[in-house]
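Possible regression after last week's pipeline update?

I re-ran a chain I had predicted before the update to compare outputs. Posting the input and the new output here so someone can diff against the archived version. Not blocking, just want to make sure nothing changed silently.
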Amino acid sequence: MRKKIQAAQKMETIKQTQKKYGTRAMTVAIIIAVGLIVIGEKAAGKGLVLGALFSVINFVLIGLTLPRTVGHGKRASIFISLASLLLRYTLLAIPLILAIKLDQFNLITVLIGIFMIQLMILLDHLPIPLGQTRVRQKRASS
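New output (post-update):
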C-alpha cells in the first residue's frame, strides 16, 4: 500500500514538472511566433510552434514511460526503454519531415521548437533571475 502511495506522489511530481515546463515552452513559442508572423516570417512562426508542440508531447511521453520501466526485470526495462525511445524519435521526426517537405514551416525554427523544453529547463536553472522565482530545495544535513 505504501509503495502505491509513493508511486502516486512521484507521478504527481512528474505531472507538475511536465505542466510547468510544457506551459512555459508553449507560451514562449507562441509569443515569439506571433512576433515572427507580425514581421512577416509566417513560416518561421508556424515552425516554432510546431516544433514546440512536438517537444511538449515528447516530454509528456517521457513522463508516462519512465515509471513503467521501474519495477520490472532487466530485460523488460530495457525493452520498454527502447520501445519508448523508438516511439519518441519517430514522433520527433514528424515535424522535421513536415518542415522539409512543406514550405509553410521553417526547418530551423522547427529545430529550435523541438528543443524548447530543454531551453526552458536550462533557463530555469540559470543563476540570473528571468522574471520567475525558483524554489530552492533544502539539502538534507549529513
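Follow-up from reviewer: compared with the archived run. The first helix runs from residue 2 to 38. Marking as no regression found.
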